[in-house]
Structure formats: structure tokens, C-alpha cells
Amino acid sequence: MRQSTSSKVVSYAVILLFLIIYVVPLLFVFNVSFKSFDEYLRNPLGLVQSIQWSNYTDAWSEGNFSRYFGNSLLYTGVSTVLTIIVSVFAAFPVARGYVKWAGFIYLFFIMSQFLPNPLVAQFKFMLFMKDHIPFIGYDTKLGYTLLKTTGTGVVFMMFVGYIKSISRELDEAAGVDGCSYTRYIFQMVLPLMKPIIATGVILTAIGTWNDFVGPVMYLSSPDNWPITAGLKEFRGQYGNNWPLLACGITIVAVPLIVLYSFIQKYIVDGALAGAVKS
User: Fold this and answer.
1) Distance between CA atoms of 37 and 159, rounded to whole angstroms?
2) φ/ψ (deg, to 5) at 36
């Protein structure tokens, strides 16, 4: 495709605009996090003159981020793995048509994406589970993890679309060789789905790690709070100390940035999966 000079200018202008919108605030927060409180008061927008590495250790210890960070790793890691596994085992028979009403099931998931988040129903369900099965009910780590695992709608639909692009001849060959269903999913289907799985991982991880409403509604005990709830508490104590608050924001953001940097090469392939058929 040939691109005119004017279209190139527009493209670069749009890219520059997005860089300003997304990157500049991150750089500002990162720059502020290394300033002393006095330096921030003298020049909030200027570049840091004397790097204060102790800001991060102070924010980590004073904000008790070690406990919140561990909780977030637990919630995000377990719910992401479970979401991927559940979505694969649900999407495969639907994509292949191995279950009745496969088209209706897929349509049901599509319709669910347009409905409002059922927070009230989920809250009542968690209270109900606390009365009958306390260890997976309201204000429990296991209950909150399982609740976050239920948000598989978008990942399920992406997996269905990707699996449809995988040749059915592999299913037939595996059946002839006597491969079991579970073994076929783990040893054949999952390796072929690496690009779309990477996309599902980053979407699920971002949704769980950055969730703020969920912990407020379903986790009342500080011992169970993830890092977003801890950051809210930290802001209440150090809202006027912007360098320490910027350190807290950076601590929350860095894990997802690192995760994205490792799997970003698969994300574009997964997002475009099925767009071009050979």
C-alpha cells in the first residue's frame, strides 16, 4: 500500500499525540518519585536534581506494600492461569461444534459483553457463599480469586475465533493415535495458541491487578487487600507527599509493564489471529 506525504504526517501526528497522552504522565510520575519533598515543592515539573533512592524503600515499608504485593500476585497469577485453562476447555468444543447449541452458547457470551457488570448479584452471591461455604465466600482470598476467574467472556471469544483457524485434521489424527482429550488440549492445542494466550494473559492480568472496585466490595479485611486497595490506603496517609505517592504508583505499575515487555511480541499476532486466512 502506497502512503502519501500528508497521510504520513497525520500518522506521525497521531502517534505523537498518543505518546504525549500515555507516556508523558508516566515519565512525570517516575521523575517525581526520585525527588525529595523539598525539591518537589520548589520545582514540581522540573527534572530531578538529586535522586532519592530511599523514597522507594520508605514507600515500600511505610505503605506495607510487601503484604499487598503478595496478595496481588496471588490473585493475579492464580486467576489468570485458571481463566486461561477454563477458557480453552470451554472454547474448544464450542469452536469445533462438539457440543449442542454451540452457536447459541457463543452468542450468549457475546450478549453478556453488552450487559452491565452484575456487582449487586455477585455481592449477594459472595455473602450467600460465606454463610454456606465460608472459605470461598465474602472476604476470603480463595473466594475473591475464584470470582476474578469468572471474567472469561472476552478471552473465551478470542479463543473460539483462534481455534477455528486450527485445522480439524489435527483432531482426527490425534483420535486415530489414541490421544486423550485432555492430553490433546495441553500438548497440541495450547502450544498452537501461544499468541492468543499471551493476549488473554495480559488482558486478564491487567483486569485483576488494576481492579479497584472488587477489593472494596468483596474484601473488608486489610490482610486480604491487593495492592490497589493498599495504594488507596497509602494515599490517605501520604496524599500530600507526592514523591512517596509517586513511588507507590510506580510500584503498582511496574509489574504489568514488565509482564507486557516479555509477551508483547505475541500480543499483536494474537489480536490479528484469524484476520487473514490462507
Assistant:
1) 49
2) -75, 165
